[in-house]
Amino acid sequence: MGEAKRRGSTAERAKQARQRREIPVANLIQELGLPPDSKYMGYVIHNPDQDDYSLISGLNTAPPAVVG
């Protein structure tokens, strides 16, 4: 019970989970085990209802971080 109290109420934890997090692209590349010289080319969104994907090109921008 002490750990749950330390993390806050259910409402507080839900709010924290919904907040945006920024992860530097270099950290994401490392975390995913990709080659260190991998380049950001954009991202893909998966629609599980239709099992299709949408490509969002990021070739004209260099993101400082991935927001999740």
Strand content: 15-25%
Low-confidence stretches: none
Distance between the termini: 29 Å
Alpha plus pi helix count: 3
The main sheet orders its strands as 1-4
Secondary structural class: alpha+beta
- Summed up, the domain count is 1
Order of helices and strands: HHEHEEE
**Mind summarizing the main beta sheet?**
2 strands, antiparallel
Give the overall average pLDDT: 76
What helical percentage do the residues reach?
25-40%
- Shape descriptor reads extended
Q: What's the total number of strands?
A: 4
Tell me the radius of gyration: 17 Å
Topology readout:
Layout: H1 2-7, H2 10-18, E1 22-23, H3 25-31, E2 42-47, E3 52-57, E4 66-67
Antiparallel strand pairs: 1-4, 2-3
Name the features.
two-stranded antiparallel sheet; 68 residues; two-stranded antiparallel ribbon; 32% helix; alpha+beta
Task: Please give a structural write-up.
It is a single chain. The protein has helices spanning 2-7, 10-18, 25-31, and strands spanning 22-23, 42-47, 52-57, 66-67. With 68 residues, the chain is an alpha+beta fold. The strands form two sheets. Strands 1-4 form a two-stranded antiparallel sheet. A hairpin with a 4-residue loop joins strand 2 and strand 3. The chain starts with a helix and ends with a strand.
Structure described in brief:
The chain contains three helices and four strands; from the N terminus they run H-H-E-H-E-E-E. It has 68 residues and is α+β, with helices and mostly antiparallel strands. It has one domain (2-61).
